[in-house]
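Appendix B. Raw example, untouched.
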Amino acid sequence: MTEHHPSIINIGIIGGGPYSVEVILKQIEDNNRVARNPKIIAISDPDILSPGIKLAKELDLLTFKDYRELYDPKYNIDLIIVLKPDDQLLKEVLTSRPNHIRILSHDVFRFLWKDIGYVERQLKVRTEEMETILNHIQDSIVVMTPEMKIVEVNESFLNQMGYKREQVIGQRCHEIFQKENRRCHLSEDGILCPLNDVIRNKTSSHRADLTRLDRHGNIRHMDVIVCPIWEADGKISRFIEISRDITEIKNQQETTKKQLEQMVEERTRELEETHAKLLHQDKMSSLGKLSAAVVHEINNPIAGILNLIKLIKRINAEGPVTEKETAQFEQYLDLTETELHRVGRIVSNLLTFARHSKIETKKLCLNKLIERTIIMNANLLKLNNINIIQKLDPDLPKLLGSEDQLQQVIMNFISNAVEAMELSTPKNLTISTGYDLSDNCVFLSCQDTGIGIPRENIYRLFEPFFTTKKKGKGVGLGLSVAYGIVKDHGGKIEIDSKQGLGTTFTIRIPISGKSMTKTT
């Protein structure tokens, strides 16, 4: 849509005396500052040597001896100013003028001209006062148009940036501050234009720490405040920018920061060395405890196997083996096989617990993994009369993880729940899944109606070889392995248990597989 501007008033002057020269020069000065001012296009005077006629010819204005030529419609003159103090001339002009042309008499003009002159003198004094104040302010002040052109600066700005006034007036701010021909909406150096921020957010001011280049290309750190001057129609007429050079402060902060970083690095190195020594001592202590526990756990089934072998050998040495004793041998062999499987599970779980190899991950659907694991354990659940309740989120997003390892965690939860509900009624196992937007993670909950876990044991559940199961039912590595798997997936395990009411195990695993921010 084309913006509408009022028509320019064309002016003609009668009289080429000194006043006409003043008026013409004044109009030239005003037109250099304000666009679309009234325009003097012609002057008339019988004396072709009058100063007004001479100046008009130099400026290529229309000149006439007879003022009546100013009436010609082709010149589109709207106002005639009579600058001759001749009453008879004024009467003739008023009588002969066309109706569309207005007349300003000599007396009225003199009155207005003196009044305008007084106001201009007052403004000039006031302007000089403001310039004196601005030039004695230590902060840099820059005045810019909405088009980012610099129209005024104070002495502090010129001194700080190393410029002369004529080098910056009329230039765009980014050409001076950043040595760039393009506007700095957001440059590669991360410089956000404060003027754009004021326009976008329609704020009364904007403050920011910015880096700028002085005339010699040196980087200056500036604390900048931009204040817009709003017009009545909601448009910005000018930007006033006040800035303070904080380069020295920034340099001191950077020096202090480097010193602190160096001190932290040295202290961290000392702590790491101390930590390594303590960790080594702790590892040796843990290794001793682990070795004792492994020997104890493996020694029990091996001792049982040895006793069974001795018993078989003794019976066999006493004489021919009867049919009844053959049946006993089969029973002893079954027990031996059971104990050997137990040894195998101990060793397998121990290796899994101690292994630190990198897991192979891929995008997987936790719901499908749960359903497949339930099918694999269908016989176990059926034999123990377990009622499975599935509350799986149908919109559950996929996560990055290892199917084999996560399936091992789920199987561990299911087997623990089955054993916990051995003597309970009812026997309900509720498996739920969902998505937590705040942590960007999926969660899996296994809630049983078993006997629950004593409070004093909850904090020891993930310790290797700690178990609350009956002798021969478990070796205490299942939850330790599960804990390690979940941790490797960047997740955590939560436990909520009440004795006599049941236990809920919940794992939370981030979709990306990266470590969660909350502690485990």
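End of appendix B.
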